[in-house]
């Protein structure tokens, strides 16, 4: 590059040198021309003195000329300027005709010459005019010019490289650095570049980063947001709650999580369709957004399950305010195609740190509280409490026990006598299930039956009871207890089992079916009443008897007594406990039973006074601690013999 | 990137691109003479546009020759006088294009008749000695058997002659050698033509365009184009002198058209010379080998 630049400048220098030389040559030409013109008009060799001063002035005024010499045909000097130092003879030999000045090398030419004619009359004499050249001046001019051009060349080279460096830096280095930074950090897109290729890269990077950012956002949303409602999902909520826990721990404040479950959402989906279900979920999500505070975090964690984190709560009251708003917003009816649907929600609240110090615990406890709200009739909210926790723990514990009780034979039937009031002999008994745990001891049915009914184990337990009762009847076949009637309790869920009748038949085939009595409560009959009547009639046809348990506490609908072929009415213990207050009712029940030709059993008889009164009212049987509490089979057998005077 | 590289290379292109090579400039040194109007005409009409020709116009033939002599011009218009003078001085001049021959354009004026002059003892002769005037005068003296020693030679160029106050010299025998158009003013002062190239057979005044030997040798094509341009101009001038006058008048000190027209009558165009003419002028050292026909 430098070579090229200096080559160019050398070429330029040569041209400039030539131009300078030509300028000096032109100057000498002009001087010669003027001198020629002057001499033609004024030269007179006999009176040369008259023009000497004018000739001298031409030397002084023209720096390129060192001397002027006029020589006659005999080489005599007619005129010699003051500055001329060399002898004319030597000089004359070296002189070049002025005509050839443009073809001569100025810096090597000492002098130029031309001829003039001097006329005397018509006769002419020729004189040579020699112009001596000031070679020092010529060299100085050329050196000066060379120095100037060299300086310009250096300056230009320096400027060129500065400009090239600037351009290179501005248009290549800086854009590359900008692109590198942009490629590394993927933010702060550089401004548009002048160079097309860089601009293309920049634009491509920008487009790629935009696409990546969009994809990242989409992926982030996919990983953190519920696609239907755009609320946070469970995973993100977990991390958010962890962060809130850390923050709350530092600030020593509280926060609450609210577990929401839409009431009867399954019915909505089943009856109107999933599409409507999705609309409902979106509406609920919007309602939540509008009801909660700015920094509250709403999330959808399951089908119709939502969770809201309420940071920085001072007390339950501040939570309640939010819950009320949520309830109000959600309960606004949804209108679809001229139909209005009202959505309700059950909510459970757990507070940090009281109800849990980690996500799972808080979620579990809020869930428990929500289920409590459901259990309490839905469309309300409940805070998690220790009692609730205890209850749930009990339930969990019981579920655990139940799951292993059948396999480990922890269940046992206890038998409570039914006594004929007129003879005071035991004529029947009610089999009551007990869970006899090796560590816990005897666990009463009211602790585990609800749990069994909830988790469905009641089906297996119920079948076990039938099997065990039938086995017991068989076992008593050849004993004094062979005539005794044995009652068992059947739950509503058992009756709803399609194969219940088959199971019953299966176990009855080895006993006299009339010795088995099945006790049913009114609540069992409420659901699918007609189907139940049909089933009960089929059961009756198997030869078993039916008892209506806890009569007087429920609906006590007379239609049951009319439509269902019961054999026995059992007066609930609550009537017997407050017999003085309930005499009229007891009388009425006994009267109805008598009219309907049903047997009557009074439950929960614990005192002789109660028994006396029942006898007065002509109640036929009683059952209660007055005779015996429920007893294991062998004790019951002992008690039977004792009461019935069998040795 | 390409643009950037181009941007970087632009200065190199600008620096390295030398100007378009042009042929050497032809500088023609000439003077105001009716015979040279084809040069002015061709120049004004643009016939010389592509030939890279520059014209330097001087007052006299001598000055025009001086310009050539010092190397400021490589072509010059001359009569045979200047041609030969330059040939002796520079040894580097050849005739290239013949333009015209004087046909009354050069003349001798006097305030006396030839007879009176013959009787005169002292004649004051005004002329530009170092010019064709000298040849005209010598021819005049010889033809009229006059004694040259009677002449008092006063060497002045034509411009200087115009400035002489001849009224003060009216009693003296005066003789002026001049040429058109300078004769007009002198005739107006009372001088009369006593001889001219129109009626002198012993001498032919040739006006020619001469060049350096090198130019003639190296630029023949350009010189031929110049010749064609001049031929075309001469044709134009012949066909429409009034139109030509309008174009070239400024080069002739804006002389009236009548003068221009009469001046044209005082020359003959010899741009297409006959062999006889070429043979004749060989004695003036006009080598026919270099003359373009």
Detailed description of the structure:
The complex is a heterodimer of chains A (647) and B (293). Chain A has 647 residues and is α/β, with parallel strands linked by helices. Chain A folds into 3 domains: 142 residues, Beta-Lactamase (2-Layer Sandwich), CATH 3.30.450; 154 residues, 2-Layer Sandwich (Alpha-Beta Plaits), CATH 3.30.70.270; 201 residues, TIM Barrel. Chain A contains 22 helices and 22 strands. An 8-stranded mixed beta barrel of chain A has the order 13-14-16-17-18-19-20-21, surrounded by 5 helices. A 5-stranded mixed beta sheet of chain A has the order 2-1-5-4-3, sandwiched between helices. In chain A, helix 21 links the parallel strand 20 and strand 21. In chain A, helix 13 runs parallel beside helix 15. Chain B is of the alpha/beta class and 293 residues long. Chain B folds into 2 domains: 157 residues, Periplasmic binding protein-like II (D-Maltodextrin-Binding Protein, domain 2), CATH 3.40.190; 91 residues, D-Maltodextrin-Binding Protein, domain 2. Chain B is built from 13 helices and 11 strands. In chain B, the strands form 2 sheets. In chain B, strands 2-1-3-10-4-11 form a 6-stranded mixed beta sheet, sandwiched between helices. In chain B, helix 6 links the parallel strand 6 and strand 7. In chain B, helix 2 crosses helix 10 and helix 10 crosses helix 11. The longest helix of chain B is centred in the C-terminal third of the chain and has 20 residues. Chain B is globular. The termini of chain B are far apart. In chain B, 47% of the residues are buried. The mean pLDDT of chain B is 88. The interface between A and B is medium-sized, with 36 and 33 residues.
Give a brief outline of the structure.
Chain A contains 22 helices and 22 strands.
């Amino acid at each position: 590059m430098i070579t090229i630049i200096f080559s160019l400048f050398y070429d330029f220098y040569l041209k400039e040198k030539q131009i300078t030389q030509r300028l000096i040559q032109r100057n000498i030409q002009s001087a010669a021309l003027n001198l020629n013109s002057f001499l033609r008009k004024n030269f007179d060799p006999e009176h040369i003195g008259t023009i000497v001063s004018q000739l001298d002035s031409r030397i002084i005024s023209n720096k390129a000329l060192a001397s002027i010499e006029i020589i006659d045909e005999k080489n005599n000097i007619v005129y010699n300027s003051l500055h001329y130092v060399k002898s004319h003879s030597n000089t004359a030999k070296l002189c070049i005709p002025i005509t050839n000045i443009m073809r001569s090398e100025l810096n090597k030419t000492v002098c130029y010459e031309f001829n003039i004619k001097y006329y005397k009359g018509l006769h002419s004499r020729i004189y040579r005019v020699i112009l001596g050249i000031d070679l020092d001046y010529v060299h100085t001019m050329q050196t000066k010019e060379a120095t100037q051009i060299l300086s310009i060349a250096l300056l230009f080279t320096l400027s060129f490289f500065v400009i090239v460096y600037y351009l290179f830096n501005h248009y290549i280095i800086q854009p590359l650095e900008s692109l590198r930074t942009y490629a590394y950090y993927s933010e702060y897109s550089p401004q548009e570049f002048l160079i097309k290729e860089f601009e293309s890269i920049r634009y491509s990077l920008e487009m790629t980063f935009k696409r990546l950012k969009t994809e990242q956002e989409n992926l982030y949303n996919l990983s953190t947001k519920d696609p239907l409602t755009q609320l946070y999902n469970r995973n993100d909520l977990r991390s958010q709650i962890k962060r809130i826990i850390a923050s709350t721990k530092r600030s020593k404040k509280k926060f609450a999580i609210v577990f929401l479950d839409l009431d009867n959402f399954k019915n909505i989906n089943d009856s109107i369709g999933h599409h409507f279900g999705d609309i409902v979920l979106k509406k609920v999500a919007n309602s939540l957004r509008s009801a909660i505070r700015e920094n509250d975090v709403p999330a959808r964690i399951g089908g119709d399950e939502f969770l809201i984190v309420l940071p920085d709560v001072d007390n339950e009251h501040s939570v309640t305010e939010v819950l009320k708003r949520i309830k109000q917003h959600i309960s606004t009816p949804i209108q679809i195609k001229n139909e209005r649907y009202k959505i309700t929600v059950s909510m459970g609240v757990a507070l940090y740190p009281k109800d849990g110090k980690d996500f799972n615990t808080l979620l579990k406890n809020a869930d428990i509280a929500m289920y409590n709200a459901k259990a309490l009739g839905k469309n309300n909210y409940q805070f998690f409490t220790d009692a609730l926790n205890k209850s749930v723990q009990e339930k969990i514990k019981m579920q655990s026990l139940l799951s292993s009780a059948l396999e480990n034979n922890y269940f046992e039937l206890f038998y409570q006598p039914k006594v004929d009031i007129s003879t005071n002999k035991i004529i029947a008994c009610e089999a009551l299930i007990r869970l006899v745990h090796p560590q816990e001891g005897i666990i009463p049915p009211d602790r585990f039956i609800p749990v069994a009914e909830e988790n469905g184990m009641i089906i297996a337990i119920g079948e076990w009871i039938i099997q065990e009762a039938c086995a017991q009847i068989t076992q008593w076949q050849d004993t004094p207890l062979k005539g005794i009637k044995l009652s068992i309790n059947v739950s509503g869920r058992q009756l709803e089992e399609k194969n219940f009748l088959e199971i019953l038949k299966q176990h009855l085939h080895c006993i006299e079916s009339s010795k088995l009595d099945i006790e049913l409560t009114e609540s069992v009959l409420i659901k699918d009443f007609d189907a139940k009547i049909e089933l009960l009639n089929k059961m009756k046809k198997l030869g078993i008897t039916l008892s209506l348990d806890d009569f007087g506490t429920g609906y006590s609908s007379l239609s049951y007594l009319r439509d269902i072929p019961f054999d026995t009415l059992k007066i609930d213990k609550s009537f017997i406990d407050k017999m003085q207050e309930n005499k009229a009712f007891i009388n009425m029940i006994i009267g109805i039973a008598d009219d309907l030709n049903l047997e009557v059993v009074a439950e929960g008889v614990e005192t002789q006074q109660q028994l006396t009164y029942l006898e007065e009212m002509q109640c036929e049987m009683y059952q209660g601690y007055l005779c015996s509490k429920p007893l294991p089979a062998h004790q019951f057998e002992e008690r039977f013999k004792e009461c019935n005077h069998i040795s | 990137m390409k643009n950037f590289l181009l941007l970087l290379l632009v200065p190199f292109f600008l620096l390295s691109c030398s100007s378009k090579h042009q042929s050497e400039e032809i500088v023609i040194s000439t003077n105001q003479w009716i015979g040279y109007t084809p040069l002015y005409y061709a120049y004004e009409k643009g016939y010389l546009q592509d030939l890279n020709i520059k014209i330097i116009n001087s007052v006299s033939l001598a000055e025009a020759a001086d310009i050539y002599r010092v190397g400021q011009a490589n072509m010059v218009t001359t009569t045979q006088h200047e041609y030969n003078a330059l040939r002796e001085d520079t040894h580097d001049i050849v005739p290239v294009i013949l333009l015209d021959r004087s046909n009354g354009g050069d003349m001798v004026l006097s305030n006396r008749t030839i007879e009176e002059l013959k009787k005169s003892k002292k004649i004051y002769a005004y002329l530009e000695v170092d010019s064709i005037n000298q040849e005209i005068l010598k021819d005049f003296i010889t033809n009229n058997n006059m004694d040259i020693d009677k002449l008092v030679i006063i060497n002045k160029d034509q411009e200087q002659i115009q400035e002489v106050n001849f009224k003060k010299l009216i009693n003296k025998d005066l003789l002026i050698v001049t040429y058109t158009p300078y004769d007009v003013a002198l005739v107006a002062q009372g001088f009369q033509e006593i001889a001219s190239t129109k009626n002198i057979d012993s001498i032919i005044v040739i006006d020619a365009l001469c060049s350096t030997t090198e130019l003639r040798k190296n630029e023949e094509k350009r010189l031929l184009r110049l010749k064609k341009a001049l031929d075309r101009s001469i044709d134009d001038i012949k066909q429409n002198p009034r139109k030509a006058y309008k174009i070239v008048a400024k080069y002739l000190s804006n002389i009236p058209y009548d003068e221009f027209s009469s001046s044209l009558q005082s020359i003959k165009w010899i741009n297409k010379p006959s062999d006889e003419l070429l043979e004749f002028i060989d004695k003036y050292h006009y080598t026919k080998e270099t003359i373009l026909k």
